[in-house]
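ASSEMBLY PREDICTION REQUEST
Request ID: AP-0331
Submitted by: J.K., bench scientist
Number of chains: two
Total residues: 438
Priority: normal
Notes: Please return the full assembly, not individual chains.
Input sequences:
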Amino acid sequence: MQLVLDDDGRPLYAQIATAVRRALAEGRIGPGDRLPAGRDLAAALGVTLATVQRAYRELADDGLVVSHVGRGTRITPGADPGMTDLHTEVRRLVAQAARLGVSANELATMVRRVG
Amino acid sequence: MRRSHRLAMVVLPALVLVAIAAILLAVGGRLPDPAAVHFGPGGRADGFAGTPSLVGVFLGFPVVMWALFAVVSRVAGQHAIGARALAALPLGIVTFFLGLTLATLLPQVDVADAAGITLPGWSIPVTVAAALVGGAIGAWAAGPSPTPPPATTGPRPDDPRTDLPGGVPVWRGVTPTGPTLRVVAALLPIVGIGTWWVAGYGPALVVFLATVVVVASSRYDVTIGPAGVVVRGALGWPRTTQKLSTLVRAEVADVRPFDYGGWGWRYAGGTTAVLTRRGPALVVERSDGARLAVSLEHPQEAAALLNGLLDRREEHRHATGSR
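STATUS: Completed
Returned structure:
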């Protein structure tokens, strides 16, 4: 299994999270697959454990990965790769709203009105 | 076979066997018939044999053992870490029998009836000492195990390569499970249940613990990235991180766990070996000559990525002019 970080100047945790999302969207990893252990990935990348944990937490918040003590972090069984795209779109939307001074709450209200 | 190994395993044991034969020839006619060949507690004779059996016990048995260990050592190969110890065994065994022959037969020379023979107190220590001295001479004659060739300066042109994707790649793999480990892991619980049935839960617990140890040491995680290589046991330990800055090149090589003392996490002759089966493994060479060998399902992928990262590091060094 291979992840590729973009090295695009964004915070490293965001680069790691994006690399996992892309690998999932491209089918290079699938539901149930194990991600590198936090400590291993941190050592192999030369970043702190906290950076990797933050990336994995972000992915877990999106429901893309599940972590179990002693069993590592896996892609959520049954995770739909399509969900990654949706999460990416939502992130972009939130970022654009923020630029326009629209808060996440206001954005949510806008989304509900559309739905 | 190297000359030193031939000396330790063939020439010297053969000389000792000739010495045993000479002793049997020299004293054979002056021994009681039957002669004592086994001694009970207190050194009292309790086993007797006629002259033909004497030859079988003192000459035939060591010849068979010698041949057996010579074959084992040959099969094991001279690069095995245990090669020196294996080479020492044939001489140790035949000198043990030389001591045994002397200790058993000398007290019986010119004695009419073997029934009254008692083994002298020095016989056991002398026999053991003979075996140890023989083994030590064998190990000395066999010479040290061969040392690995010196490290190179960077990946070689014919080492596996990959075109690195733009960006920062991270690779993760696990060690495969070889057929022998599978069989052992599958049989141990059955042996455990059998042991429970026959001997109760105490001994069975030991077997189950052994199963846990076997399973825990049968799977390792490998992570490779721009900072280096991480190898870690299934339970998080043992663990090693080899920084990219200390590495020189990576290759794929066929390895045998036997050469490193067995499966699992081993250290032998400057190589840290994490092997779960016989076959292709990722072998990483460090600038200080030390090596790391890890069984992998796709060692080619791992070696290619690592060499790509090392090439990139070299290009970076040239570009910035730093060494």
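REVIEWER COMMENTS: The helical segments of chain B are 3-28, 51-76, 83-105, 123-142, 179-199, 201-216, 299-320.
SIGN-OFF: pending second reviewer
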